Amino acid sequence: MTKHDIRTALRILSAVVLLGLAAGFAIGWLTGPRVPFSDARPEAAIAFDAQETTNPIGQTGNGVPGYGDVYVNDYGGLLIAEAEARIRDTLIGVYDQTGIEMTVLTISRMSDYGHAGEIEPFATRVFNTWGIGNATRNNGVLVLVSRFERTMRIEIGKGYSRKSDAVMQRVIDETFLPAFRKGAYQDGIERGVDATILALTGSYPGSLDNNTLERGLSRIWRAIESIGAWVLGVALVPIGGFAIWLRRYLRKRPRRCTRCASLMQRAGEQADDAHLDGPQRLEEYLKSVDYDVWHCPECAHMKIMAYRAWFSGHSTCKSCGYRTLETTTTVLSSATTSRSGLKRLDYLCRNCGHTDSETRTIPKKSKSSSGSGRSSFGGGSSSGGGASGSW
Question: Is the pLDDT of residue 71 over 80?
Answer without folding.
Answer: yes
